[in-house]
Amino acid sequence: MSKTIQAIRGMNDCLPSETHIWQKVESILRRVASNYGFSEIRMPIVESTALFKRSVGEVTDIVEKEMYTFEDRNGDSLSLRPEGTASCVRAGNQHGLLYNQEQRLWYMGPMFRHERPQKGRYRQFHQFGIEAFGFAGADIDAEIIMLSARLWRELGIDDVVTLELNSLGSSEERASYSKALVDYLTLHQAKLDEDSQRRMHTNPLRVLDSKNPEVQAILVDAPKLSDFLGEESKAHFAELCQRLDAVGINYVLNERLVRGLDYYNRTVFEWVTDSLGAQGTICAGGRYDGLVEQLGGKATPGIGFALGIERLVLMVTSLEKLNDIRPQVEVYLAMLGDDVDIQANLLAEQWRDKVPEIRIQCHCGGGNFKKQMKRADKSGAQVAIILGEDEIANQTATIKYLRERKEQQSMALADVPTFLAQLI
Ligand code: ATP
Ligand code: MG
């Protein structure tokens, strides 16, 4: 026997036993985005490698070690997208959607990063993202955070997530802070681990992110980012905090929150949880006022966030939220006797016309009553409708309740659509 082929490590199938939860989560994401006036944008999964190098940054973890990059047959360097913002800005520039306009956009789909697979961390994973262009003020920062907070409420996970907030200032403020930080770290270079020593030269702010307790101890006396913010950045951040206070959204100020991507300025935030083990961030975002220009467009402010759908699905499953999702079908249609199945299928078609929401699974493959009832039970249906030769002759259907202690009943065929409508 030949060996069966397996999926690529870190790239998962989503099986029918899980898809209903995915669909429910996705439908909440779509609806809430639309509640705030955001429209969907769909971008390709493959882009020029240069797009991510220029936006995410050459010396970020994503571009340095995580991208799936390959040569196209004609020699171009292409990459599977590791995130959505770069593609979204690329598309906006290409189609003239950004300059001098306001856009509220969302996207959803697979992203690819060559990371070590573990719970909540995969090589193909799915993000839902929000991007708003053309708004410079703190009102939109507050709005997209409100939108995210609504998502957690609708998913039933709002009591296990925390918002962390920081401001990185303008790119100049960030650069002068970065210089001060490097000066400070240079004095303590010998005590830094290898990773931090490397980052100190390539992407100094990332040192703040270090999980190493010794590095964290050195950072206690490091210069503070907030001391480098100018008046405008401070006012922007203060207004955001005020707006969040006004709508009752709690947050924790985290001066060490810097985000791994190069393009952020001013507001950055993360929603974190303790309920997922090591993979604690479920949603992350911030302002990227320089990115549109950096990718060749005319200067346009932007802000957005991305969330990992796998992590949300893990959370709602382990916390047993969204348990009211309807079973696979409402009705199993059993059919017994010569030629009954053709009649039965015809009736099922008519019922679907009359009650479009109803889900009827018709029995296929013949067999006796016992076999058909076993299938009916396995289908998850609430009721079985049984059609035999007698029923067809009398223009009736037999209704058998599969999940309740209720007597079987006979019903005129003409009454079935009304009965079905009550099952939904
Ligand atoms: P992390 O610190 O967990 O690596 P990140 O900073 O790399 O996250 P972002 O690039 O900001 O993450 O992506 C936003 C969200 O996408 C994350 O908060 C997380 O929920 C999800 N995500 C990121 N990488 C993965 C992955 N490899 N597998 C599953 N979800 C992921
Ligand atoms: Mg990461």
Entry summary:
This protein has 424 residues and is of the alpha+beta class. The protein contains 15 helices and 16 strands. A hairpin with a 7-residue loop joins strand 9 (265-273) and strand 10 (281-287).
Question: Any idea what the shape is?
Answer: elongated
As a percent range, the share of helical residues equals 25-40%
Task: List ligands, each type once.
Answer: adenosine-5'-triphosphate, magnesium ion
- Compute the CA-based radius of gyration: 28 Å
Task: Give the biggest sheet.
Answer: 8 strands, mixed
Low-confidence parts lasting 5 or more residues at pLDDT below 50? none
Give a written overview of the molecule.
This protein is of the alpha+beta class and 424 residues long. 38% of the residues lie in helices and 21% in strands. It has 15 helices and 16 strands. It has helices at 16-35, 49-55, 61-66, 85-94, 138-155, 171-187, 194-202, 213-219, 231-246, 291-294, 309-318, 340-354, 369-378, 389-394, 416-423; strands at 39-40, 46-48, 69-71, 77-80, 103-112, 124-133, 161-167, 252-253, 265-273, 281-287, 302-308, 331-335, 360-362, 383-387, 396-401, 409-412. The protein has an eight-stranded mixed sheet. It is elongated. The model has no long low-confidence stretch (mean pLDDT 94). Adenosine-5'-triphosphate binds next to strand 6, strand 10, strand 11 and helix 11. Adenosine-5'-triphosphate is lined by residues 83, 113, 115, 120-122, 125, 127, 260, 279, 281-284, 306-308, 310-311.
